[in-house]
């Protein structure tokens, strides 16, 4: 059962300007693993990657209704790519399925996050393996 959907659109050039002005932006928004992945990209691809992660985290905050701050921090959300390139979102202490789509077109990045309630069997699995599926 879907319990939340969030969408966000960001200007890649605006995020790039923030990166230039505020040196603390990247370490504040991205987890250490995301920073490593961003550093592997150059030029516009780096800015697209960072803007995509920022946008996805914003979309997650809209899907939950929490916002960023009180219950969930930027560092609690991590989006890394599988070998196929598909982004996978993990959230610290958040035992729900999350799905994320990130797309770039021109100077825009658009993201969608869907949150799905776990089945009874999956809930039992999370109790047995509490770190499984969530960021530790």
TrEMBL record:
Chain sites annotated for binding Mg(2+): 8, 58
InterPro entries reported in the protein's UniProt record: 4-PPantetheinyl_Trfase_dom, 4-PPantetheinyl_Trfase_dom_sf, ACPS, Ppantetheine-prot_Trfase_dom
Cofactors: Mg(2+)
Keywords: Cytoplasm, Fatty acid biosynthesis, Fatty acid metabolism, Lipid biosynthesis, Lipid metabolism, Magnesium, Metal-binding, Transferase
Entry's Gene Ontology molecular function annotations: holo-[acyl-carrier-protein] synthase activity; magnesium ion binding
GO biological process: fatty acid biosynthetic process
Listed EC numbers: 2.7.8.7
GO CC, alphabetical: cytoplasm
Domain 4'-phosphopantetheinyl transferase: 4-101
Main location: cytoplasm
Subcellular location, record wording: Cytoplasm
Enzyme class per UniProt: transferase
Catalytic reactions of this protein: apo-[ACP] + CoA = holo-[ACP] + adenosine 3',5'-bisphosphate + H(+)
Main function: Transfers the 4'-phosphopantetheine moiety from coenzyme A to a Ser of acyl-carrier-protein.
Family: Belongs to the P-Pant transferase superfamily. AcpS family.
Identification of the protein by name: Holo-[acyl-carrier-protein] synthase
């Amino acid at each position: 059962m879907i319990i939340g959907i969030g969408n966000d659109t960001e200007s890649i050039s605006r995020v790039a300007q923030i990166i230039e002005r505020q040196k603390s932006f990247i370490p504040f928004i991205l987890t250490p693993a995301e920073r490593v992945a961003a550093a592997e990209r150059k030029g516009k691809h780096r800015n697209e990657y960072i803007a995509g992660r920022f946008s996805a985290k914003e979309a997650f905050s809209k899907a939950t209704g929490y916002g960023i701050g009180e219950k969930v921090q930027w560092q609690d959300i991590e989006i890394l790519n599988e070998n196929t390139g598909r982004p996978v979102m993990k959230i610290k202490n958040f035992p729900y399925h999350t799905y994320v789509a990130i797309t770039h077109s021109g100077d825009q990045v658009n993201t969608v996050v869907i949150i799905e309630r776990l089945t009874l069997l999956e809930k039992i699995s999370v109790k047995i393996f509490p770190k499984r599926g969530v960021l530790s």
